[in-house]
Amino acid sequence: MTTSPRLYHQARWHEPVVMELGAPGRRGLLLPAAEPAVAATGDAASLVPAAMRRARPPALPEMTEHDTLRHYLRLSQQVLGMVGISLFGTCTMKYNPRLSEALGLRPQMADLHPLQDPSTLQGVLEIMWRFDHILRALSGMDRFTFQAAGGADAAYTHVCVTRGWLSARGELGVRDEIITSIQSHPCNPATAAAAGFKVITLPLEEGGYPSLDALKAALSPRTAALMINNPDDMGIYNPQIVEWVRLVKEAGALAFYDHANFNGVMGKIRARDLGFDACMFMLHKTFGGPKGGGGPAVGAYGCSAELEPFLPRPLVGRADDGRFTLDVPADSVGKVREFMGNVHIVMRAYAWARGMGAAGIHEASDLSVLANNYMQKGLAAIRGVALSNPDVTAPRMEMTRYGLGPLKQDTGLGVVEVGNRMTDYGVDAPWLSHEPWVVPEPFTPEAGELWSKEDIDTWVAVVAKVCDEAYTTPDIVRDAPHNAAIGKIDAEACEDPARWATTWRAFQRKRA
To answer: Which residues, 6+ apart, have CB-to-CB distance to 475 below 8 Å?
Structure first.
């Protein structure tokens, strides 16, 4: 049976902002009067210093519980209407188990404070200690920190550790270059530059990755580190990676493995076994943690024993008596984030890893690669869609980058218009790619192990349908979306500070 896009229409409510709702005197909760003994101590307002008291009551909407519930339910209907099939791409987006979400809301996690004495944090410290050891088993590294708030922050952690390592060796300022490739995630060159290093970017060559000769030409006594992800967002795994790392180490530099695309190789390879000195994992992606609204996030950074003294403080350790402690590395670079980072995401990742087990993690990587190559067969057959690095015939890993360059050339419609139209069929618009766009009009779907064959067939069918519309009825694609809560917007307003408002006060002022 041929898969067809589903009929779909998103909920649409003409819903005011909450500040415009309600009426004076309405209440969702009536607080009881203070007990006589409490009231006898005096007016509570008098406990607030005069200089800190409001001159007038806050401008808050007065609403019943029922009205408040309906308002946010309508907003959620407009947003959750798009919880369809989301093959986000370049990011391993996974289902977030409800059990982990429930655990994160329990007071044993939600009500902790990072300034508590470690003796009162033994449960959460044990989770961090045990998950540290799980990641050691998956990577071969000797110690992990969870302080970094995401992948870019983990890359920044590495360049900070690199500076500390170079300083201890008397080479800071001598080794001032970091090598990466044009298909590495932009956080690698960006964080290297932010830490004061010069960046050498290697171009792609035959096979879809830079050549050994290009790497050799870039290496010198000034090389501080290599920062690379493998496989890259094209889905191409560099089979020469062991030789790459050997040459970098031979030159006296460090090798950092950006494991943002770990999903297709987890349980198959270990960064330390390949010779890398450090690596990072995305807990808010690969390990089942939520990635909503840009966070919260954790970039778990692991390194060899040689680099361990430079890790950010504190690290979770275990004393001889079994108590868990907060340790300060001998030559710590300090902190890259407050306290111990987003610990509740570490808890979710620990629950995911324990639930999957070693066999489950190994199987998930198999399914991820299988799903991607199955999806590639369908997408590559669509008119207007091009495959990145078409000369590469080896199977791709957990993602493949495609381009709508042919469609753009034929119809004038590109990936943005196609993405807008895809939402009319109840699937999320795909992620395009990191800059720079080395593939014209790129999109990079990633099925991972989550999505079923039927889901992938539906997603591919939507792409095929929209591409066909671009050739036959282009206006319906150009003016999309049509079935969404909000139609095509004037994006220029987002660039004009005289028009947009992020606070109620600014909204009132600009509306007037």
So the answer is: none
3-state SS class at 303: strand
Measured in whole angstroms, how far is the alpha carbon of residue 375 from the centre of its chain?
A: 22
The domain of 239 spans 120-354
Residue 232, φ and ψ in degrees, nearest 5: -90, -175
Residue 5: inside a domain, yes or no? no
Asked if residue 173 belongs to a domain, the reply is: yes
How many structural domains comprise the chain?
1
The alpha carbons of the chain give a radius of gyration, in whole angstroms, of 26
**Residue 434 scores a pLDDT above 70:** yes
Return the residue matching tokens 């600009």. Answer: 510
Tell whether 369 is covered by a domain.
no
Q: Is 108 part of a structural domain of the chain?
A: no
> Angle 349-351-354 (CA atoms, 0-180°, nearest 5)?
105
pLDDT per residue as tens digits for the range 176-212: 999 999 988 899 999 999 999 999 999 999 889 999 9
Q: How sure is the predictor about 87, in pLDDT bands with cuts at 50, 70 and 90?
A: confident
From residue 191, how far is each of 187, 194, 497 by CA, in Å? 6, 5, 29
Token digits for 249?
Answer: 């180490």
Check if the beta carbon of residue 17 is closer than 8 Å to that of residue 504.
Answer: yes
Count CB-CB contacts under 10 A for residue 495.
8
Among the listed residues 114, 462, 461, the one whose alpha carbon sits nearest the alpha carbon of residue 313: 114
Report residue 459 as tokens.
Answer: 């997603």
DSSP 386: E
For the CA atoms of 119, 135, 352, 373, the dihedral, rounded to the nearest 10 degrees, stands at 170
CATH code for the domain in which residue 236 is found: 3.40.640.10
Q: Which distant-in-sequence residues (6+ apart) come within 8 Å of 132 by Cβ?
A: 143, 144, 146, 316
**What CA–CA distance (Å, rounded) separates 339 from 258?**
24
- Main-chain dihedrals φ then ψ at residue 288, nearest 5 degrees: 80, 10
Pair 226, 253: CB distance under 8 Å: yes
